[in-house]
Amino acid sequence: MERKKSNLAVSVDVTKSKDFLAIIDAVGPFVCLVKTHVDIIEDFDQSLVQQLQDLSIKHDFVIFEDRKFADIGNTVALQYSSGVHKIANWSHITNAHPVPGPSIISGLSSVGLPLGRGLLLLSEMSTKGALAVGSYTQEAVRMARAHRDFVIGFIAQRTMEGIGMQENTVDKDDFLTLTPGVGLDAKGDAMGQQYRTPRQVILESGCDVIIVGRGIYGKDPGLVDEIRAQAKRYMEAGWEAYQDRVSA
Ligand code: BMP
């Protein structure tokens, strides 16, 4: 993030590998991270993974497969390491719902730790009516604190710093907060998504990274110049809000 002066992550939720790679190559210079949902790609094969890794090196970004694991330890270890996608082989970080309890972290870390991978826990969600609130969020943060060797942060709507801690605790967290539900032009979509601006997310809510999908690639993945311009716009808005937060 510091090297590229970017706290922008782009979520590339398209179904064709040609569009997927074209968007990533266009936004690459502006992002610290690319977030994927490889299970929506219709023509997925292992060569796509190789090309994604090449782009990650070319543009210096981290790869995050947004897999949202949510099962027992034994099952998530298999889903993470095996199957068609073999996520652990190529995705630097992935994420999990804390709903099964700490065993989900043990299962995933048995695969990911030896490979130097990291995990994000979903302690909140951006959607209307989300159930990840209150004590659920607090327990997610406690789970993360108990597994600092593998958990590097959260998908959440605000910083999780200090949540669930006793008052006067001197212990400080050092987790990242990556936040989806970010848009400069829309307030939401027709399926419950809710958007806030980079300023609200980074400056007011103390998050670190903005995750932007449709706000950048829009409706037509072929408009590469427009996608590049939007990526630059979101990168500048995110970084300016971050600079304002750290200098406040
Ligand atoms: P968009 O900016 O187009 O709404 O996309 C948001 C992305 O972030 C999607 O890939 C979605 O799966 C993900 N996401 C989210 O929107 N809210 C959450 O709480 C967690 C997510 O992973």
TrEMBL record:
It catalyses: orotidine 5'-phosphate + H(+) = UMP + CO2. Residues 7-229 form the Orotidine 5'-phosphate decarboxylase domain. Transmembrane segments: none annotated. The active site is at D66 (for ompdecase activity), K68 (for ompdecase activity), D71 (for ompdecase activity). Its EC number is 4.1.1.23. Keywords: Decarboxylase, Lyase, Pyrimidine biosynthesis. Pathway: Pyrimidine metabolism; UMP biosynthesis via de novo pathway; UMP from orotate: step 2/2. SMART domains: OMPdecase. GO terms for biological process: 'de novo' pyrimidine nucleobase biosynthetic process; 'de novo' UMP biosynthetic process. It holds the Pfam family OMPdecase. InterPro entries: Aldolase_TIM, OMPdecase, OMPdecase_AS, OMPdeCOase_dom, RibuloseP-bd_barrel. It is an enzyme of class 4 (lyase). Belongs to the OMP decarboxylase family. This is Orotidine 5'-phosphate decarboxylase.
